[in-house]
Amino acid sequence: MTAEHPSAETSLKNDYDSPWKEALERFFPEFLALLFPAIHAQIDWRMAPVFLDKELQQIGADSPRGRRYADKLVRVRACDGHEIAVLIHVEVQGDPESGFGERMFVYHSRLRDRYGLDVVSLAVLTDTIASFRPSQFRHLRWGCGIAFRFPMVKLLDYVEPERWTELEASDNVFALVVMAQIRAKITTEAETLKGWKFRLIRLMYERGYERTLILELFRLIDWMIRLPAGLEADFRQELYAYEEQHRMPYVTTVEQAGIEKGLQQGLQQGEAKTLLRLIDRKFGPEAAQRHRERIERAELEQLDTWLDRILTADTPETIFH
User: Fold this and answer.
1) How far apart are alpha carbons 57 and 63 in whole angstroms?
2) What is the pLDDT of residues 288-305, one digit of tens each?
3) What residues does each domain of the chain span?
């Protein structure tokens, strides 16, 4: 199977990491039900999942540079009463990486050692390279070996007509997130992408979701699928006309301010991520980890200033003073 490869312009306009992290936290049960149904069936959902982002950051603080994953660590209770740590790696780099399986094994081992819990590691591959399908890590030397396997889902497989039809027919809200990710990654023509964006938004209305859910999903889809300014304006006009026709002005009324706020937050998170990456490359991962909390709390204007300063900074501290 071959897939279209997005242009550089399209790739720059799409932010996959941040919306995936938010979508996983907001729709975690739906995510598992859609992509890992057998695992979903083994969880006692009467106990709410607990997200352990800080713990995961500590585990990965000394990981090799260049990592491009949206990671989530979630503690759940299994139906048999055991507490389980579910580690989710969402691969958003877009290129094969030979060490991916080993990285999954290292994270799995560290988490199991630190917390003494069963750990289930899951991989969701969102890249466009059909042959890149890591699902295990093996190593053998002088009779001593490691064989580590992990469940993996390749979103590119859902491009096949039969599976895409299943997504469109699904009543699982996470199907819309998956479809938005797929189309954002494989669609090269901006006009075609606009059509897909409108189609996905229209699906929300056709399913009769309540206003709050529509706005949450809209923000995630809008975050994933970015269009050139002119086409974005055309898309908004088509959406407004559709809402008026169906008497459902959810996006065009006061809630629009909330969406714009969400986009602003997306820009802030993107700049924070860029600054952390630059500090990591220039001063090392320990410096990035030391200043992470301050950077992630900073306003957009402050981040702009710090990004300018890093170009001439001799030490991390000179960036912030």
Assistant:
1) 10
2) 888 888 888 888 778 888
3) 8-157, 262-319
